[in-house]
Specification:
The chain is of the alpha+beta class and about 350 residues long. It contains nine helices and 19 strands. Among the domains are: about 80 residues, Dna Ligase, domain 1; about 100 residues, ATPase, nucleotide binding domain (Nucleotidyltransferase, domain 5, 2-Layer Sandwich), CATH 3.30.420. It is about 35% helix and about 30% strand.
Length: about 350
């Protein structure tokens, strides 16, 4: 086995599905470039429709996948583990918040933006749920809507609309336990649709309007991106294993795609835009499925292919490992954002020291 040089950062994505557990490890160098180091997949047991049905079997599957991955990665081992979360335990809502700034108006600061986001995302959840994602959909200032970035603008009041995704606490805890039992810590849990978006969509796709249709073995997740962000989801408790007979005549598939079409039509009517559909999950490998889905949805459909993948992975494997690769990209983006934040804090402290020195000396 080749011994690699010292790495700046290793990020691991773990996709826990109903038929397989897939894990991918990647190295991020000092320039922020990701290179796939290794991958491993094992049969999944104890998981159905995104939820655990037998925790001991689920733990065993995760342990096997991470053990195989560690063997391939080498002596430095795994780190920074991000895990997907799926299923009907996922819920979402769109709260709004507003803060007053000044009667005559003033310049909007970063602190104002953070305060407004906190007000909007402070929602009452049932005791058994926890927030996993807070996404800003849009800002508005005074009577002007659809502000992309209010920083530095003058206004009397600032408002924003958020997309808040929550999950059942017990489901989150079960995921943490699976990884902990394998001897590792979880850096974060990520909704599968967000990971798939990181893997499959360009910024242009997210701006123009795109739907990721992930039809797995026992679960279908619909994730709609618009204006650069995830803005709607629908989780359907059926998948490839629920489709009977020929797919062209399948009542179950027609019903599933009819639900997806309703959501797409609602978006197009509201925005005047036509969305593109990216198909991923186990059903995406069926012969003729792209043409079939395209005909049923009456919009462009393409098979999901992960973007800019390099390293120890084939093109077909990258398609099968879409979610795990997206988790790595999510982790890389989070790491980069924290590095920028730390740099900004240091610059702010340095500026304050200079100010104090100038004021007193």
């Amino acid at each position: 086995m080749k011994i690699l040089e010292k790495r700046s950062l290793i990020i691991t994505g773990v996709d826990i599905g109903s038929t397989k557990v897939s894990a991918v490890a990647a190295e991020m160098d000092k320039d922020g470039i990701l290179t796939i180091l290794a991958q491993a997949s094992v049969q999944s047991r104890g998981v159905s429709r995104g939820a655990f049905t037998d925790l001991s079997e689920g733990v065993d599957s995760v342990i096997k996948a991470l053990a195989k991955l560690k063997e391939k990665v080498g002596p430095e081992g795994l780190g920074n583990i991000y895990v997907n979360i799926s299923g009907q335990a996922i819920k979402a809502e769109k709260p709004k918040g507003m803060i007053p700034l000044s009667m005559r108006g003033r310049e909007i600061s970063k602190g104002d933006i953070e305060r407004c986001m906190n007000v909007a995302s402070t929602i009452q959840l049932p005791y058994d749920r926890d927030i996993i994602h807070k996404i800003v959909l849009s800002f508005s200032i005074d009577d002007q809507p659809s502000i992309k970035n209010p920083l530095g603008l003058y206004a009397s009041r600032l408002a924003c609309e958020m997309y808040v995704i929550s999950a059942a606490i017990n489901h989150i805890e079960n995921i943490y336990k699976c990884i902990n039992e394998a001897g590792y810590d979880v850096k974060d849990v990520v909704y599968t649709g967000i990971a798939d978006g990181m893997s499959l969509l360009s910024e242009e796709d997210k701006d123009n309007g795109a739907v990721i249709l992930n039809i797995g073995a026992s679960l279908t997740e619909v994730s709609l991106f618009a204006g650069g962000n995830l803005s709607d989801i629908d989780i359907i408790p059926s998948g490839r294993h629920d489709l009977k007979g020929d797919l062209k005549e399948s009542f179950e598939l027609n019903d599933l795609l009819g639900r997806v079409k309703t959501k797409i039509d609602e978006f197009s009517k509201k925005t005047g835009k036509e969305v593109s559909v990216v198909l991923t999950g186990g059903l995406a490998f069926e012969d003729g499925i792209i043409e079939l889905v395209e005909a049923k949805l009456s919009c462009p459909v393409r098979m999901g292919t992960p973007r800019a993948v390099k390293g120890d992975i084939s093109s077909i494997d990258s398609v099968r490992l879409t979610t795990a690769l997206g988790l790595i990209r999510y982790g890389e983006a989070r790491h980069r954002a924290k590095a920028i934040q730390a740099k900004n804090i240091l610059q702010h402290v340095s500026a304050r020291v200079v100010d104090i020195f100038n004021n007193y000396f």
